[in-house]
């Protein structure tokens, strides 16, 4: 069931390499990655013995023990809020209860989390990372995740295929690169037409109700089911669209609201996806300059100047574009193509502190003619499926993603010429468009449901000011968007983190986490124009450093950062939490979960 979560596992797996303490240990860890990949391929919430079918949906939150240390529930909500007595949906929820004893005067209620996407699973996020999230925001809160309507364990589920194997086989016929050939845009357009027809054919009258406005209404329903009136929320990436939508719809119900890695919601609801790539090349520059500064001992793809490294990377792109590499190892096999390399580079830009050293090592091996390491990062062992008649509902990340973003946004013209024009215009602004353009193109041929849901404006005087967080070099949600969105919400504040990566957890900044913690606990906002620095660099020096919890894991990197030297015990705990959080792949990615792409 988990075959399509390739880059979700990629982040988790590669993080073990980033912790290597010296270069030879780093190489040993990398050589064993295929075995680690096979092991971690199975370690997800779905592999723990718990059946959501045993949870009956209810009008109240009936929490039941599910995964270790977690409680789960299914909450009934109206499928159509304009018809509250009509068909129903059931939202899957998970929580890690507050550490405080029941009835404590310090208990502060639930904080809801959304990892982005759209289509990301909040259940997976809280299952994997609730303890770390609690360390950051405080033990006073319940950590609550939910699968938005149409997603994963929530029902009805957005599903276009009859079986998992049917979905998998369709996905493997897709191209990562829109312009992979002269007919690439046309091929992407044609496949989207097919998906639109499959979606319409599989729709049981529920599909049009899978959108962000209804999910925002579901969140208010969840808050009220907790006996609360105001939402406490931390949303990342697409989760910022959800948070901004909630704030605009229900300004009087905002308690604490953090939106982190902010999307331009106006651009999103217009289905343009045209402003995301403004800082992608700026983020890539941090890899190039960081590698030069790290030197050949700590960056395997080192060259004397950033331009030299970029030229070497371009050479690898050109080589794979003209001559893909056959791969056969003991664990897997396949063909490594240009699009795979481009996808891994973009994945690393999302999580520089977790992936830059591994990216450099993979590039160095590829330059030497060995693509097996890069391939092992991207692909688990060959897909296997029992394919029997009792096959359970499969993971539907891509179907849910397409359903939400295509329902949310303005209709996309169905003609091929409009798709070609859109790609050409986006490509003029960034060559990353050859991958990014498919997000909008996926909506070609989507059923023409009425656009009677909320699409803005994003202007409100919220009952408590919003905190927006943005990185100075975010590859897909530029800081510019946070500043733009802040203008619509009275008294909101933008907190800037001076780091590369997607969302604040991409880099370990105790400064940022302290501001987020103080906001949730005390309601304290940072001063306008506050800039937080991360601790350490994406390419750290290969020196061991002790942990406050005892001897650090073998091969842990030191930062040589003065901020680390002056850190209090409390801040060190916070630092360890955010650093670990950055390795958990809690942020969903609307593009990089590329197996299968439709």
The domain tally reads: 1
Helix proportion:
40-55%
Secondary structure class reads alpha/beta
* Share of β-strand residues: 5-15%
- Low-confidence spans: 1-47, 388-392, 543-559, 590-597
Question: Which term fits the overall shape?
Answer: globular
Main sheet specs: 10 strands, mixed
Side-by-side strand order of the widest sheet: 1-2-3-5-4-6-7-10-11-12
Q: Using DSSP, what is the number of strands?
A: 12
Report the total helices: 22
N- to C-terminal distance: 17 Å
Family: Belongs to the peptidase S33 family.
GO molecular function: hydrolase activity
Domain Peptidase S33 tripeptidyl aminopeptidase-like C-terminal: 432-532
Organism: Gymnopilus dilepis
Give a short summary of the structure.
Residues 110-293 form the AB hydrolase-1 domain. By secondary structure, this protein is an alpha/beta fold. The protein has 22 helices and twelve strands.
